[in-house]
Amino acid sequence: MRGVTPINPQKKIEADSNPVKESDYYEGERLTHLLDLIQRGIETSKLSNVNSLPEKIWLKKQIAIGINEVTRVLERMNPNNTSDQQQNPKQLQVVILVADCKPRMLTKHIPNLAASRNVPVLYVRDNKRASLRLGELVKLKTALAIGIKARGNDLNLLLKQILPRDS
Hints:
- By secondary structure, the protein is α/β, with parallel strands linked by helices.
- It has helices at residues 28-47, 55-62, 67-76, 109-116, 130-137, 154-162, and strands at residues 25-26, 63-65, 92-98, 121-124, 145-149.
- The protein has a domain at 54-162: CATH 3.30.1330.30.
- 38% of the residues lie in helices and 13% in strands.
- It has a five-stranded mixed sheet with strand order 1-4-3-5-2, with helices on both faces.
- It is globular.
């Protein structure tokens, strides 16, 4: 066969252009603290909800749930535009991503997309239980990615305390 380049399975795949530092991961006691903080923020935001929407609808308005929904919201955001993040409820304040999902290709695009929109990404891992723990927050069995929408509620105020200052 002339002109055909053989596929080399030994060829290294390029590493992510956005490397993750070990300090970016939430696991163990730090993960438990983060999830408790988010759960408290969700509960206090629900209590201050004057419209008294059904819980599932309220959650959907506050949190983008799942890889597809997080990707969709990030793609609709203006690149590198942080000035209107607090005014526009379609903006994400933070993306929480399961770091130990298999296959990795499912979530590989989210960190670069979030970085282009100036949205911080928090990585969670818990010996293959992170998706279960993240799912508990949003009343589902599992979740690989969730995005907290910037709506100016108690949840956003709590998350603002733990996010890096440059975001």
